[in-house]
Amino acid sequence: MSRRLKLALQVATDAAGLPGKAQLKTWMDAALRPGVKTAEITVRIVDAEEGQQLNRDYRGKDYATNVLTFTFDDDMPAVEGLPLFGDLVLCAPVVEREAQEQGKTLLAHYCHMIVHGTLHLQGYDHIEDDEADEMEALETQIVTTLGYDDPYRTDTE
Hints:
Strand order of the largest sheet: 1-2-4-3
Radius of gyration: 15 Å
Helix content: 40-55%
Number of helices: 5
Strand content: 15-25%
Structural class: alpha/beta
Binding site for Zn(2+): 116, 120, 126
CATH architecture: 3-Layer(aba) Sandwich
Function: Single strand-specific metallo-endoribonuclease involved in late-stage 70S ribosome quality control and in maturation of the 3' terminus of the 16S rRNA.
Family: Belongs to the endoribonuclease YbeY family.
Order of helices and strands: EHEHEEHHH
Shape: globular
CATH topology: Collagenase (Catalytic Domain)
CATH superfamily: Metalloproteases ("zincins"), catalytic domain
Distance between the termini: 37 Å
Number of strands: 4
Largest sheet: 4 strands, mixed
Pfam families: YbeY
Subcellular location: Cytoplasm
């Protein structure tokens, strides 16, 4: 498929083990649905302070979260054939802590968070149970295709 993905990467943390731009593009391209022909996405990796501030300012939740998704126009869902624009903000300390708690490698969890956020940019959500089931199944398929374990696997053999 010929698709154009323009990715801007901003790193606003001194955290170690961050994925590079080429790795991010691979993960995002895998998460873009077939109808998306072009996408312009900014990924910003932040520290806990900025992550908490953004989550508080935009979601009214006063804690840092793993990934925040900002679409270009909340009133305009992703439409097949139209360009996709948006931003993903990943909070490095939260992603690192979750990876340790879940027994995953750091890169596997970053992959999952990028796939998760990229799906959000395209209108997927997990508020309702049926939406969550669909989104989680898609995330699992994409992440495992990329060579990582099922991100929702609960055993840590």
